[in-house]
Amino acid sequence: MKTIYKTTIITLSLFLMTVLFVACSSTKDKYTDASDDDFKIEKSGAQLWGETCNRCHLAPSPTDYNDTDWDTIALHMRVRANISKDDIEKIREFLKSAN
Ligand code: HEC
């Protein structure tokens, strides 16, 4: 009788541990499926201008140049500072909209 009691306890414990193990595992993929891109915060042209164009010299004010000049300068600084196409487009749009 005593052996049966022990065996039952051990079997039940093993069963519970298995249930717990299965229940606590493999939920990661289901609930954290979002990639980093989903949480990427888009920066505005003004933000990028403030951060990027101040790195090497004081960021020029949008009113310092006209639209045509900004096109040329954007290309020049894109090459000079290795700025991504998306970022320079946003900065250029901002500079042209604020001059
Ligand atoms: C990697 C450093 C660096 C960064 C970042 C940078 N510049 Fe420049 N910039 C320069 C240097 C160096 C010059 C001097 C001209 C030259 O040698 O190319 C210059 C010159 C300029 C000039 C003078 C006119 C011209 O075209 O030469 C303007 C205007 C200018 N930068 C605007 C900007 C703007 C707007 C940004 C942000 C998009 C920016 N810069 C980011 C390095 C930088």
Question: Which descriptors would you attach to this protein?
Answer:
99 residues, mainly alpha, binds heme C
Largest sheet: none
Poorly predicted residue ranges:
none
Query: Which of globular, elongated, flat, extended, rod-shaped describes the shape?
Result: rod-shaped
Tell me the β content.
under 5%
User: What Rg do the Cα atoms give?
Assistant: 30 Å
Structural class: mainly alpha
What string gives the helices and strands in order? HHHHH
Q: Tell me roughly what share of residues is in helical segments.
A: 55-70%
Q: How many E strands?
A: 0
Mean pLDDT: 88
Bound compounds, each kind once, are:
heme C
Distance between the termini: 92 Å
Number of helices: 5
GO molecular function, one term: electron transfer activity
Protein name: Cytochrome c
InterPro entries: Cyt_c-like_dom_sf
Record the SSE blueprint:
Blueprint: H1 2-24, H2 28-31, H3 45-52, H4 67-81, H5 85-97
Helix pairs in contact: 3-5, 4-5
Bound molecules: heme C.
The site of heme C has 13 residues, from helix 4.
